[in-house]
Amino acid sequence: MKNIAIEDLIQLLGMVGIIGSLIFVGLEMRQSQMIAQAGQQQDRTAIFFGLIGSNNEAGVDWQSTVYEADVGKSESYTSTEIVRRNNFHAHLFTYENDYFQYMQGLMPQQVWDAKLIALEFFYNQCDMRVIMDYRMNWFPTGFVEIINNLNDECV
Predict the structure, then answer these.
(1) Do the Cβ atoms of 99 and 79 come closer than 8 Å?
(2) Separation between Cα atoms, residue 29 and residue 77, nearest integer Å
(3) In angstroms, rounded to a whole number, what is the distance separating the alpha carbons of residues 142 and 36?
(4) Rounded distance, CA 70 to CA 62, Å?
(5) What is the pTM of this model?
(6) What is the rounded CA–CA span in Å between residue 56 and residue 115?
(7) Are 49 and 55 in contact (CB under 8 A)?
(8) 56 contacts 83 by C-beta, under 8 angstroms
(9) High-pLDDT (> 70) share of the chain, %
(10) Residues 70-112: pLDDT tens digits?
(11) Do 138 and 101 contact (CB within 8 A), yes or no?
(12) Alpha-carbon distances, residue 42 vs 13, 17, 69, 115, 137 (angstroms)
């Protein structure tokens, strides 16, 4: 059997330590990137909240102006209907952001489960289903699958 010199053993342990450190740094960088992406998603959601709030103040329906490009259509809704429709969009932005946070591992399962209950509540506001169906065109596929598996009281 061959004897290993103490110097060689020390070098080997040093290399293992360096490799372990590099792996740790790589994992930390990955986590930092996930947190940064989640922050960007949160910032985009906040921007949409600001835009929707401005539409509420102006009495303009978000769906009509942004998605349907028909500014005049807002006039067919009462101010209460406009606020409700706009707030529905705001909730959808929130749930889309929540989905992203959850998928990145940044939201505990308990919180996500509660979010799904609330999402199902909004999904079953049947008079808003046209907005939900329209917005699902822009949601991530996984989020659409979750929505499609919710209990549907509107059929």
Answers:
(1) no
(2) 49
(3) 21
(4) 10
(5) 0.77
(6) 25
(7) no
(8) yes
(9) 98
(10) 878 888 999 999 999 999 999 999 999 999 999 999 899 999 9
(11) no
(12) 43, 37, 26, 16, 20
Q: Identify the residue whose tokens are 């978000």.
A: 62
Mind giving me the DSSP string for the chain?
-PPPPHHHHHHHHHHHHHHHHHHHHHHHHHHHHHHHHHHHHHHHHHHHHHHHHHHHHHT--HIIIIIS--GGGGGGS-HHHHHHHHHHHHHHHHHHHHHHHHHTT-S-HHHHHHHHHHHHHHHT-GGGHHHHHHHGGGS-HHHHHHHHTS-----
- Separation CA 153–CA 121 (nearest Å): 10
Identity of residue 120: E
Taking Cα atoms as reference points, which of 104, 107, 67 lies closest to residue 89?
Answer: 67
Q: How many residues are there in the chain?
A: 155
Q: Cα(104)–Cα(140) distance, rounded to whole angstroms?
A: 13
Q: Distance between CA 66 and CA 35 in Å, rounded?
A: 30
Q: Extract the tokens encoding 42.
A: 């949160």
